[in-house]
Amino acid sequence: MMFFLRWPIVLILLVMSALSFFPAALGTIATYNLPVDTSILTGASNNVELWASSTTLPERILWYAAAVFFFIAAVRLIRRTQAFWMWLLGFACWGGRWALGQHEQEGGIAATLQGVASLEAFQADTLAQGSSGAQVGFLAFLLIIGLLIFVVDGADRDYWERQGG
After folding, report:
1. Which of 151, 129, 142 is nearest to 93 (CA)?
2. ∠ CA 139-145-148 to the nearest 5 degrees?
3. What are the DSSP calls for 56-79, one per residue?
4. Contact, 16 vs 143, CB < 8 A?
5. Phi/psi at 122 (nearest 5 deg)?
6. pTM across the whole model
7. pLDDT in tens, the chain (165 residues)
């Protein structure tokens, strides 16, 4: 049973690791004007390049750290060892990066959370624009993944205790 739960979570963690690493890498490339062609990653949009050049060093560090922690959590899930704590550190880095981004916006985190309180924040066209409702919904998705990792870790712990290891 845990097999069907473990491998989708591993894939989600690997995707989360990539989603954390690539924005940080694009930001590093744009900030330091490294001679790397990013047109494959950014596509035809200049918005991604403008956004990447506006990231701060603490944001990039938190993204890199989240990528490492999510990757370690995926490996630990594959090896059937405790992955929850690595996920928790990755989630803390991801949430901290989100909080830094909200702090720079008008009204800060309080305005973002008040904007989520209305039902208009969760309409399809608003979510597609990357509204605060989409961002908070993504954080909630990460929390659900963490809960599933906690369940899988519990089953792994029972397995290792039965094996005497």
Report:
1. 142
2. 150
3. -HHHHHHHHHHHHHHHHHHHHHHT
4. no
5. -110, 20
6. 0.82
7. 677 889 999 999 999 999 889 888 888 887 777 777 666 666 655 666 666 777 888 989 999 999 999 999 999 999 988 899 999 999 999 888 888 877 766 666 666 666 666 656 555 555 445 566 677 778 889 999 999 999 999 988 888 888 875
